[in-house]
Write a structure and sequence with these properties.
- This protein is an all-alpha fold.
- It has one domain.
- Helices cover 57% and strands 0% of the residues.
- The protein contains 15 helices and no strands.
- One of its GO terms (biological process) is lipid biosynthetic process.
- One of its GO terms (molecular function) is oxidoreductase activity, acting on paired donors, with oxidation of a pair of donors resulting in the reduction of molecular oxygen to two molecules of water.
- Pfam families: FA_desaturase (PF00487).
């Protein structure tokens, strides 16, 4: 019997109350400590970017330049951009760190990302046909997803997705599979939706592959290749972090029925079952945007991510109290588990129904009213 069938409505309500208490306590404590943290990271990210771009024009220092620029792009996307655009630092009143104004060094537009990620993904985490992050329209990631011959390419498509991750995320909002596979979107619709995406893509491509190489003069090829390497580093790392937080073998996906009359407590439990953490030191947590605590992030997406490690023991205690799984392990373990799932689901077959099926109906508050940053 699945977790949803084991818990009573009263237990769901108690879980919601206890997790709300953690969230409210942290919100009440936000202040200068959090402001110092994010401003310090922004300063370090800018230093790495400047140093990286300079070293790319100094042949003996070129490898260090790639490493510095790649690290700056990772910080900009993961610990700064992702978290700022979740509204984690809106309390500061700083226009440069405001979720409605911030834009990041990647091909995706902030507006599109906040819709597909902040709203769709975080509201409907791992719900098939609602959360587009489940497979990104390319991959089969659930036993409940009907198998099609195209899913035989699960593994090579996953490699391609990692390699060009920023571009796949940029076009995610277009839901290309509706045009290419299911024929429910017209070419005219696709072209219109692509206009703002292409505008942002052009800007990014011109900056990394035209402007900075030309600035280097005769060293243009070296700078061009350095930018390719830095972007590749960021893409592969970001995609690996995200996959490890969502797709290891024991992470659940859910049918749409799970969200019917879903209560706040049930929403919290779905986040727990649909997420996974991985262990590491301080540098690992920072470079992953603290998505090494993906469970805590899905429970509290609008809390500053550097707080997740502190509240993790409390979340684990609640899991033990109510018999809920807390999926964590080393980065390597979660990576191997994820790729095992990707390989297995490339073939036809169904192992088991989603854990979230047949959630007890309840007319309490819907989680869609949770204060998620959108």
């Amino acid at each position: 019997m699945g977790i949803f069938q084991k818990l009573t409505p009263e237990q769901f309500e108690a879980i919601g109350t206890e997790l709300d208490a953690i969230r409210n306590r942290v919100l009440a404590d936000l202040g200068e400590r959090d402001a110092r943290y994010i401003r310090g990271l922004v300063k370090r990210q800018r230093q790495l970017e400047v140093a990286g771009r300079v070293m790319l024009m100094i042949p003996p220092a070129w490898p260090l330049g790639v490493a510095a620029l790649g690290a700056s792009k990772i910080l900009d996307n993961m610990e700064i951009g992702h978290n700022v655009m979740h509204g984690q630092y809106d309390f500061m009143g700083d226009p440069a760190l405001n979720s409605q104004k911030f834009d990041w060094d990647t091909s995706d537009t902030a507006r599109n990302w906040k819709h597909t990620h902040n709203y769709e993904h975080h509201t409907y985490t791992n719900v098939l046909n609602r959360d587009h992050d489940v497979g990104y329209g390319l991959l089969r990631m659930s036993e409940d997803q009907a198998w099609e011959p195209r899913f035989l390419a699960n593994l090579p498509l996953t490699v391609i997705l990692h390699t060009f991750f920023q571009h796949f995320v940029a076009v995610q909002n277009l839901k290309l599979e509706n045009y290419l596979v299911y024929k429910t979107k017209t070419g005219a619709q696709l072209r219109e939706e692509f206009k703002p995406v292409w505008k942002k893509m052009r800007k990014q491509l011109a900056k990394d592959y035209v402007f900075f190489p030309l600035l280097a003069g005769p060293l243009a090829p070296l700078v061009f290749v350095g930018n390719v390497a830095a972007n590749l580093t960021r893409n592969v790392w970001a995609c690996a972090v995200i996959f490890n937080g969502h797709f290891p073998e024991d992470v659940e996906q859910f049918p749409e029925s799970v969200i019917e009359n879903e209560t706040r407590g049930q929403w919290y439990v779905r986040q727990l079952l649909g997420s996974a953490n991985f262990s590491g030191g301080k540098l690992m947590h920072i470079m992953s945007g603290n998505l090494s605590f993906q469970i805590e992030h899905h429970l509290f997406p609008d809390l500053p991510a550097h707080r997740y490690q502190e509240i993790s023991p409390e979340v684990q205690a609640i899991c033990r109290k109510y018999g809920l799984p807390y999926n964590t392990g080393s980065f390597l373990r979660q990576t191997l588990s994820t790729w095992k799932r990707i390989a297995r689901l490339s073939l036809p077959g169904r192992r088991k129904p989603a854990t979230g099926a047949a959630v007890p109906a309840n007319d309490a508050e819907s989680p869609r009213e949770l204060p998620l940053a959108a």
